[in-house]
């Protein structure tokens, strides 16, 4: 389909991460903003970060200077000279560090892989090369080494206008310049499908620098056509059967893999997020999946795959969307193994799946549903982790209890089990069994009265201090009548971070306590209501927290998504955030990405001597990226990062950050 757009309009796939569909949560469940507001109004003046949060809407945070705040800079656990915030076409890292590009879109991954040629792309070549839009980054040691291991990387989605020449043309339309986009050919769609999925690649540190091992025996590409298995309660159910898979157990490919995780037993998990954009067409009239798909915003049709493949056309394969939106587990030790979609962990727009072993040996996975007014989840395995027999853990994810969070006014959180037959999850409400509950996880959570959140993204448990950190990116759809002066904010453009302490330090438990660690945004603007400590500099504050990492010392690092000239006056990047003591809520900028990019990852090597970060969709965007002030596409790019060669397009890439001369980062 050809579309005409003005030059200041974003391309459709550029919006895929932001475009979570219409406001699909139809419930009147309370929002996190209403709960925080009620909590503050009941408790009055509170201590610590909650006190700052309660009054920040009416008093400038810069005026909230306590004795501890004055000592915050000295009390920080992060020791590095802060980077200056800004906007340009390059990446930047704090002084004293190197930031080396390790893997770029199109880089060969195998000894026989072809070299990247942007003018001669093919699906066969792309399937042997590093994929597009790297997001989650994980590290699995080989023989316990912090300097030799497997790097696992998700490839979330593709930007065809940045990838292919000839897609975008400037034309004259009614006397004005406009952009015309040509439909993709089947060959180009095949390249897109091969650029999705994930990469497993052996890497080694040599003389202080990381290198790709192209003949690594465990190297693998996973794509949107890789054969996979459905496992767990939904496998074989009628609602996942298709013409190509009448048994309902075999799926081809994985799509829109955002964040993810590495399990305690050394497998790689990929999270399927914004699946709605890949489906087009209309369901047959009166089809039973209509309400289910509406709750997920399906179909959105950002991609043109349905023009060439029937399985993405709802009119031809109405059950196909039920086969996506899952957590995918990959056995990295066997490159020939079929990845498994673990349906016990629920179906929604998964942001990540970070895990931790609980006191009793069960494993808890924290899961965000990345949409405005959707939910925070936790999956707890039925079985226990056996560190002495890794093979015994391989199917732990097929049995367990999925929970959804309800945040209460008194600062407690209840993890509500999503189990057929319990509470409203019954036949009277349209569920015939646990498979139905899991296929329609969002509706089940609606009925349980879960708390509607502001785009829950990455959620990271911290084994050092026993806390859990929830990134809430933003919610500009929040209305003024949903909050009061106590916060959080209406039109929440900058997001916030919540800290959870599970009762008794039991990550498998069903109750805990919550605090607001940070409300994000510019603390010099009183009406923004940000709550960074007064030791945070003009470079140190940020908005739109997205991904995060906890290093081996238990320190929190936050990556952002959505900053720019109009939003914050800076590009996205990686910030170090203190969570303890006098320096709590102090933030420092460590790394920033080039124009148009999002900061993904991050990941710290086990010895904390390397930070791997993923620079996603560099060069994307249009009018929001003043002073560049125009859309960016293959023939007219706002940056040619990271190669800066006239014959090379912009290329998403993974960057390895190390301290000059060696040593741990920020120590």
TrEMBL record:
This protein's source sits in the domain of life called Bacteria
Q: Where is this region: Disordered?
A: 1-30
Could you tell me which species this protein originates from?
A: Mesorhizobium caraganae
Where are the compositionally biased (Basic and acidic residues) regions?
1-11
| InterPro entries assigned | PhoX, TAT_signal
Q: What name goes with this protein?
A: PhoX family phosphatase
């Amino acid at each position: 389909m050809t579309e005409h757009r003005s030059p200041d309009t974003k391309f459709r796939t550029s919006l895929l991460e932001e475009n979570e569909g219409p406001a699909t949560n139809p419930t009147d469940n309370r929002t996190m903003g209403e709960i925080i507001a009620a909590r503050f109004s009941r408790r009055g003046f509170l201590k610590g970060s909650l006190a700052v949060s309660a009054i920040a809407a009416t008093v400038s945070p810069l005026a909230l200077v306590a004795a501890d705040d004055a000592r915050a800079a000295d009390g920080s656990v992060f020791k590095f000279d802060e980077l200056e915030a800004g906007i340009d076409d390059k990446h930047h890292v704090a002084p004293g560090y190197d930031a080396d590009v390790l893997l770029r879109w199109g880089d060969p991954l195998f000894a026989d892989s072809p070299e990247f040629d942007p003018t001669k792309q093919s699906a066969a070549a792309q399937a042997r090369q590093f994929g597009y839009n790297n997001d989650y980054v994980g590290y699995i040691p080989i023989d316990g080494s912090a300097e030799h291991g497997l790097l696992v990387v998700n490839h979330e989605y593709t930007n065809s206008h940045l990838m292919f020449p000839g897609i975008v043309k400037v034309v004259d339309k009614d006397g004005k310049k406009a952009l015309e986009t040509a439909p993709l050919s089947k060959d180009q769609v095949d390249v897109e499908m091969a650029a999705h999925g994930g990469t497993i690649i052996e890497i080694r540190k040599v003389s202080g620098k990381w290198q790709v091992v192209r003949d690594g025996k465990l190297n693998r590409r996973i794509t949107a056509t890789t054969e996979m298995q459905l496992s767990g309660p939904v496998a074989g159910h009628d609602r996942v059967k298709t013409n190509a898979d009448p048994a309902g157990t075999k799926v081809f490919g994985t799509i829109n893999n955002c964040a993810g995780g590495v399990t305690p037993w050394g497998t790689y998990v990929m999270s399927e997020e914004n699946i709605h954009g890949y489906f087009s067409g209309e369901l047959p009239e009166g089809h039973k999946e209509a309400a289910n798909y509406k709750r997920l915003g399906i179909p959105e049709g950002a991609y043109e795959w349905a023009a060439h493949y029937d399985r993405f056309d709802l009119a031809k394969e109405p059950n196909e969307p039920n086969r996506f939106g899952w957590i995918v587990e990959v056995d990295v030790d066997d490159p020939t193994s079929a990845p498994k979609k673990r349906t016990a962990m629920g179906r929604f727009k998964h942001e990540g799946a970070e895990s931790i072993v609980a006191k009793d040996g069960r494993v808890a996975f924290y899961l965000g549903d990345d949409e405005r007014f959707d939910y925070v989840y936790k999956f707890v395995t039925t079985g226990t982790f056996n560190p002495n027999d890794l093979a015994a853990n391989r199917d732990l994810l097929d049995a367990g209890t999925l929970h959804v969070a309800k945040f209460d006014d008194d600062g407690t959180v209840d993890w509500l089990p999503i189990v057929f037959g319990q509470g409203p999850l019954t036949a009277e409400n349209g569920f015939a069994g646990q498979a139905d509950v899991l296929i329609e996880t969002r509706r089940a959570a609606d009925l349980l009265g879960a708390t509607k959140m502001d785009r829950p993204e990455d959620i990271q448990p911290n084994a050092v201090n026993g806390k859990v950190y929830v990134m809430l990116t933003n919610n500009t759809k929040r209305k003024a009548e949903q909050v009061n002066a106590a916060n959080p904010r209406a039109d929440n453009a900058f997001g916030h971070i919540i800290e959870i302490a599970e009762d008794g330090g039991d990550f498998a438990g069903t109750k805990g306590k919550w605090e607001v660690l940070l409300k994000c945004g510019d603390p010099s603007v009183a009406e923004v209501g940000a709550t960074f400590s007064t030791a945070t500099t003009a470079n140190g504050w940020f908005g739109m927290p997205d991904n995060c990492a906890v290093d081996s010392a238990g320190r929190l690092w936050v990556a952002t998504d959505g900053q720019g000239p109009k939003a914050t006056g800076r590009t996205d990047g990686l910030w170090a955030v203190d969570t303890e003591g006098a320096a709590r809520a102090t933030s420092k900028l460590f790394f920033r990405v080039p124009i148009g990019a999002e900061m993904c990852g991050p990941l710290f090597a086990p010895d904390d001597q390397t930070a791997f970060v993923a620079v996603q969709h560099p060069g994307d965007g249009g009018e929001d990226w003043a002073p560049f002030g125009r859309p960016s596409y293959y023939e007219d790019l706002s940056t040619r990062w990271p190669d800066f060669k006239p014959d090379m397009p912009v290329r998403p890439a993974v960057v390895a950050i190390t301290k000059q001369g060696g040593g741990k980062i920020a120590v």
